[in-house]
């Protein structure tokens, strides 16, 4: 058994998201007073029940913060060409500053092609190759909402990443890779682990910060965590009782870690809050381009 310290500080994603959304509401009010209301288009193709919840929450969060939003829902039979045509129309819609296509899309649609069709200026998910490239080279651009939210959570506890060892478990384009880039930009030493990592425990035991983003429960257990480490759980899974849980064995790890994010109520709410931040940012850039700033 690992040495037990004391229960970890819980990083409350709901509270931080509420605070972040209040700041978005303030920025939105300033823009609206100048005649430019930030607008988000959310496109959902098919009937994935989890996606239905997420897009509803995104639209509600927009309304609560004073943003304009449109939800475009299409049947799973929508063709890729039809979806690309809708994105083209939204790219040219002056009332829309941010566009997202909820993932996953049905199998007959190429998600990469769809993401690349979104104008980089409206890519508030931060998934476009231009956005990924900008993050990689430290240029202004939109950061993917989930890792961006993780960075805000670290900031909220005043954590200084300089010289710290961060281990990211997972190498997806929308979480693991951008997460590693963001940690690196803050001068952390970063290790990316994945399904072919020979000895995951040997890696995580060295980590001051661990981000678990695999999509599999109990990927990180208490014996894999150095006492006092910061643990961010990006996973969204169901346990045997059907209850929502993350990638981390929360009960065990929270006895060893210095701080930890819960699931639910951790990184998830921050994903939506950072989407609003990116959308208001896109609108602010447009306002500046129009000389309204
Ligand atoms: N176009 C996108 N698609 C997807 C993204 C994304 O950022 N852009 N991320 C995920 C889903 N997602 C947002 O879209 C998301 C997932 C979970 C949550 C959240 O708040 N979860 C709650 C629990 C919700 C529940 O009870 O089911 C929590 O963790 O507290 C927000 C957003 C994949 N697709």
Which descriptors apply to this entry?
10 helices, amino-acid biosynthesis, six-stranded parallel beta sheet, Rossmann fold, globular, alpha/beta, 293 residues, methylenetetrahydrofolate dehydrogenase (NADP+) activity, binds the ligand Nc1nc2c(c(=O)[nH]1)N[C@@H](CN(C=O)c1ccc(C(=O)N[C@@H](CCC(=O)O)C(=O)O)cc1)CN2, 41% helix
State the strand order across the main sheet.
1-11-8-7-5-6
Q: Which topology of the largest domain does CATH recognise?
A: Rossmann fold
Q: What is the CATH-assigned architecture of the largest domain?
A: 3-Layer(aba) Sandwich
The top-level CATH class of the largest domain is Alpha Beta
Hey, roughly how much beta strand do the residues contain? Answer: 15-25%
Q: Give helix and strand order, one letter per element, not per position.
A: EHEHEHEHHHEHEHEEEEHEH
Can you list the ligands bound to this structure?
the ligand Nc1nc2c(c(=O)[nH]1)N[C@@H](CN(C=O)c1ccc(C(=O)N[C@@H](CCC(=O)O)C(=O)O)cc1)CN2
User: What is the number of strand segments?
Assistant: 11
How far apart are the termini?
A: 57 Å
Helix proportion = 40-55%
How does the overall form come out from the CA principal axes? globular
Average pLDDT level: 97
The domain tally reads: 2
- Summarize the main sheet: 6 strands, parallel
Count of alpha and pi helical runs = 10
Quick one: CATH superfamily of the largest domain? NAD(P)-binding Rossmann-like Domain
In short:
It contains 10 helices and 11 strands.
Structure explained in plain terms:
With 293 residues, this protein is of the alpha/beta class. The protein has two domains: 35-119, 3-Layer(aba) Sandwich (Rossmann fold), CATH 3.40.50.10860; 144-268, 3-Layer(aba) Sandwich (Rossmann fold). 41% of the residues lie in helices and 15% in strands. It has ten helices and eleven strands. Strand 2, helix 2 (49-65) and strand 3 (68-74) form a beta-alpha-beta unit. Helix 1 (13-33) runs parallel beside helix 10 (267-289) and helix 2 crosses helix 10.
């Amino acid at each position: 058994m690992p040495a037990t310290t004391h229960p970890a500080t819980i990083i409350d994603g709901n509270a931080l998201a509420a605070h972040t959304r209040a700041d978005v509401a303030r920025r939105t009010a300033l823009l609206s007073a100048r005649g430019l209301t930030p607008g988000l288009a959310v496109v959902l193709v098919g009937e994935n029940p989890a996606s239905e919840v997420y897009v509803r929450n995104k639209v509600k969060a927009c309304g609560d913060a004073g943003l304009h939003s449109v939800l475009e829902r299409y049947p799973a039979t929508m063709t890729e060409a039809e979806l690309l045509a809708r994105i083209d129309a939204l790219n040219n819609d002056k009332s829309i500053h941010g566009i997202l296509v909820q993932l996953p899309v049905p199998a007959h649609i190429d998600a990469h092609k769809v993401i690349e069709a979104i104008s980089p200026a409206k890519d508030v998910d931060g998934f476009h190759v231009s956005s990924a490239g900008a993050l990689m080279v430290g240029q202004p651009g939109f950061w993917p909402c989930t890792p961006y939210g993780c960075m805000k959570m670290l900031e909220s506890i005043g954590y200084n990443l300089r010289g710290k060892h961060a281990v990211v478990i997972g190498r997806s384009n929308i979480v693991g890779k951008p997460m590693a880039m963001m940690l690196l930009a803050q001068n952390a030493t970063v290790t990316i682990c994945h399904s072919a990592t020979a000895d995951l425990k040997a890696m995580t035991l060295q980590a001051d910060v661990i981000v678990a983003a695999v999509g599999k429960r109990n990927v990180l257990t208490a014996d894999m965590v150095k006492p006092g480490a910061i643990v961010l759980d990006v996973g969204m899974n169901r346990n045997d009782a059907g209850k929502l849980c993350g990638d981390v064995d929360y009960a065990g790890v929270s006895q060893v870690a210095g701080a930890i994010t819960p699931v639910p109520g951790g990184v998830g709410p921050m994903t939506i809050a950072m989407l609003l931040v990116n959308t208001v940012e896109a609108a602010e850039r447009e306002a500046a381009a129009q000389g309204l700033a």
